[in-house]
Amino acid sequence: MIKEVVKKVDLIVVGSGLSALNFIDTYLDSHKKIHVISPKKLKKIKNKKKRILPAQMKSEQNDVDKYFYYNNFFLNNNCKVLGVLNSGGLSNYWGLQMDNEFYNDQKNINKKLFNDIQKNFRTFLVKYGLIGQFKKNRKIIYNNNFKIPNFLQKILDLRNSELKCEKPILAFLSKNLKMNNLNNVKEEKSKLTSKNFFNKIKKKGKIISHNYYVKKIYKDKKKIRIVCNNFDQKEVTFLANKVVFASGTLATTKIIIDFLKVNKEIKVKHHQRLLSVFLAKKSLRYNLDFTPSVLQIKSKSGKFCADVRPGNELITESLIDAYPFYRPFKFFFNFIKSRMIFSNILLDSSHSNIFIKKTKEKFEIYSKKTDAKDYLRQSNKKIFKFLFENKIIFPIFKTLYPGPGADYHYFGTIPFNNNGKLSVNDKCQLKSNKNIYIIDGSVFNFKSNKYPLGWVIANARRIGKLI
Ligand SMILES: Cc1cc2nc3c(=O)[nH]c(=O)nc-3n(C[C@H](O)[C@H](O)[C@H](O)COP(=O)(O)OP(=O)(O)OC[C@H]3O[C@@H](n4cnc5c(N)ncnc54)[C@H](O)[C@@H]3O)c2cc1C
Questions:
Q1: Does the predicted TM-score (pTM) go above 0.85?
Q2: Is residue 12 domain-resident?
Q3: Which residues pair with 75 in a beta bridge?
Q4: Domain contains 390
Q5: What is the pLDDT of residues 8-51, one digit of tens each?
Q6: Are 120 and 459 in contact (CB under 8 A)?
Q7: Pocket of ligand 1 (CB under 6 A)
Q8: How far is residue 68's CA from residue 81's CA, in Å, rounded to a whole number?
Q9: N or C: which terminus of the chain has fewer CB atoms within 10 Å of its end residue's CB?
Q10: In this structure, what CATH number is given to the domain that contains residue 18?
Q11: pLDDT tens digits for 202-253?
């Protein structure tokens, strides 16, 4: 009989994305060490599924397949969610823009909790020197501004009854940006990805990393039993006083509904997305490989937000993946890339259309019929009209609806102070078991805020201090 390998720990974190690493960063201020479970290397999957991945993830096909396979997810074809099972997760590939203000329109987040999260975000910005301005009730409370081209600056100052323009916070760690010019950013080194952020953690030597993925958790008297596997499918169990879930909303939700024996369908909140391409009247000259969005156009009601991202060769490549018959025009697209404006139009979470349900031993992820496409197209027309009337673009556009889940913002399954078992208290402890903490997007419902990582980072840092 093979003896079960059991490792006893006080506290252990699951995941190594930006929510995990930010928790670890503040936790180590007052603790000597920390254990982390996150797989670095797992056996390759043979039956690959062809997926169109975002530009920055083009080489990650295998780790994406591993994510679904090892997490025992059964993904329905009509649902386009994404995950990646490697060090750092999706946090290595994100678009690097965050909201420049937090809106308090989330149910059951009281004023104190809201202020605490906001305060932690500001401290984070000051400590790591991100680019942009952070506002509290429209007042600037953090300032490391960047310049945008004059013809875009003009629409920033416009008054419009329905829309407002703002600059996002850009996630480059660049305290003293030379001449406020984005072209002076040291792109690869300073991106706030999990890989780069890990190197910034002062006490990273105190992180004890375990190369496993979590399969299941159980209650074991006053502790939590965490069953994991590794590359050779060797099973190891951790017996922990506290476990902190930062494995991203989908994986965290799956592990928690399994633990709580929830068999009903759970709605995953997200921001439905439409991709748009416009042709600008003037050039957007950036020399970065992948310039983030430099402007956001938001509906004042909080219903949608569109960003303005200059074209680049990586995006051209993704465009051709989606429409292979454009391949002969690749050279031309790259030639005019500084005139191309790519925009993601994101809807608020009321249009969410991703569901997760345990059926037998699998976790099915699926979508239903949706009217989101119509709302997205209507929103796109408003953005087009606004840009055209203000002489920013020529009167042409092309759109692509990539399907529910291809926005990559997943959240809202285990919210703060809700009725029912799937909820956490202000300290992010699972209601029915205080040894379990949840610190990723699962606990929020982002409505007016469309770029959620700022909130998630700030909250993870708050809990790292609190424990
Ligand atoms: C292309 C793209 C662009 C995006 N752009 C933006 C943007 O501009 N602004 C914004 O705010 N957000 C953006 N996002 C969303 C953002 O990336 C996520 O919100 C963020 O990565 C969430 O961080 P996380 O740490 O909670 O999860 P992740 O970064 O997904 O990390 C999860 C971690 O858990 C690990 N894991 C998963 N399952 C298991 C398991 N069973 N056992 C152990 N470990 C496990 C993974 O390996 C990983 O280390 C974008 C996402 C993508 C893909």
A1: yes
A2: yes
A3: 365
A4: no
A5: 999 999 999 999 999 999 999 999 999 999 998 888 887 777 78
A6: yes
A7: 14-20, 37-38, 54, 56, 71, 82, 85-86, 88-91, 93-98, 213-214, 246-248, 251, 408-409, 440-441, 451-453, 456
A8: 10
A9: N
A10: 3.50.50.60
A11: 999 999 999 999 999 999 999 999 999 988 878 999 999 999 999 999 999 9
